[in-house]
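FAQ
Q: What does a multi-component entry look like?
A: The components come first, one per line:
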Amino acid sequence: MKNKIRQPEAPRPAKVREKKKRDLKKFIKSDAAFPYLCLLPSLIGVMIFFIVPFFVIIFYSMVDNPINKEFVFLDNYVNVIKNTAFRRAALNTLTFSAVSVPLAVVLSMLLAMLLDSKIPFVSQFRTSFLCPMMVPVASIVLIWQVIFHYNGALNDFLSNFGIEKIDWLKSTKGQIVIVVLFLWKNLGYNMILFLSALNNIPKDIIEVATLEGAGGFYKFFRIKLRYLSPTILFVGILSLINSFKVFREIYLLTGDYPFNSLYMLQHFMNNTFRNIDYQKLSSAAILMSIVMVIIIGALFIAENKFGEDVED
Amino acid sequence: MSELTKEITAAERTEKAKQPLRVRLSKKKQKIIMWILTLFAAAAALIFLMPTFLTIANSFMSSSEISANYGIIFSEDDDGGKEYISEKINLKFIPDMVSFSQYYTVLFKSPDYLLKFWNSVILVVPIVIFQLLTASLAAYSFARLKGRMKEIIFFVYIVVMLMPYQVTLVPNYLISDWLHILNKRAAIILPGIFTPFAVFILSKIMRRIPVSLIEAAQLDGAGEFQIFAHICMPLCKSALFSVAILVFIDYWNMVEQPLVLLSDTNLYPLSVFLSQINSGEIGIAFAVATIYMIPTLLMFLYGEDYLVEGIAYSGGIKG
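Then the predicted structure of the entire assembly, as tokens:
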């Protein structure tokens, strides 16, 4: 930060440098420095724990091993991409995201509109939809096991309708269970985002539309959806990011070695951590971070566009 | 909402009239729609509450009742399943007899769980306190400073905040290794403190403080520190509560960090340890699970409005 205020350092006579030093000391003691100093603790922490090691990882991802340090450029990346475990993990993670994200967006929007439609007991409903996000996953995992176990409550219930037993957690159906758990946990958060967006729609526009005889259909698609579009996008990307974190639920439900269709990227990373294979770890992490940066960049661009659109 | 739109399109098709909706949709019909929507919401609410409620209800069953109900599931690893008590599982909402035996066992006979609970506390509380402290300072400077450099740093913060654990744990692991704090609590606490989530939300809120307020204070001779301490912080009080709740629940729930950064299972927080409960202890597992959700549920009970406010602030990247 300090460089910003000072001119770029160039070879100068000793006297000038001396004066600069004094100026800097004066500046630090002055009142105007306070906002700059405020940033320091946080910035130093972020630098030490995230940014600097991240650059070291970029370096590690391009050398053959941390001791030899021979430059191999993209070899490690190629190895990771060729790795079957990584591929399966990436595919599973993507499948999960592709299913759960649209559901998370649509269902939470419906919940928000439900609460926005002047039904009674709105605050009680809001509380119950939000409750799951405040319950630690570890606490309800037991009940989920009871419900989705092969001999569990759900199969018991379904057998009343003559449906055969399904081994929910140890078959390809496993993803369904995790999607349900993901939605159960995340819908409340998203719903609040939608509710606050619905509140921000200017009331007079809706009123004018109603006076002019617009139906609910028109009001929804032409007015509300337009105002909600930035939130839809934000919730979509937030859910996408959250869907990468679903390892937590899977680990607590099924442990270190889940069924194939539940093997996620974090499982891959955990196993690689166990072998302390720095090359694999760092190149996998860099690959994922590139994907994330693209997603985040899309979010920024879209928000700029949509933001202007609605303000007009 | 979907019912509503369906009703309306149906009405439009049959009548083809251009009258306003209010006339077409009679009061009675509207009432019926309200009823349907309310029932729908109630059903959804039941589904949302059920797992939590079941866990709490089950914690008041005696351990023999638990193994009678769920024995079939949790004793499957013992070969063949000779211990099966019932062929089917009994999902019960209300215990046959309310019993505190599970709690008695957890609190007085198996110190292991209390120890793990304490592990959770000792990891999460410092993270929440120090993250709020450094974040409110940093947020102040993000709100007060201008220029390209600040914007770039803020963008970097957002990127770090949004990165999943698969990415951030690798740098965290590396730096912990260098600082020789691997397998110590500090390996989780320190990166936790500097996670930029709180900075992000607080600076959004501080930026909304009207400039005129700050200028007026400056005219009265207030320095930067006074502005921070006497104007910004009081205005951010409720936001600090919101952020504290969100950060707390996030770390109370942690699983990935301890698995990677701690190899000594004695240091594991209860959030990881709970899943490793074996079949012999199923009788007390529900009580442990319930005890573990008490802090967050209490926060929810007393701070729901703060929580909602905090979530609403987190919407939108730039704010």
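Q: Is there any commentary attached?
A: Sometimes. For this entry: The CA atoms of residues 234 and 306 of chain A lie 11 Å apart.
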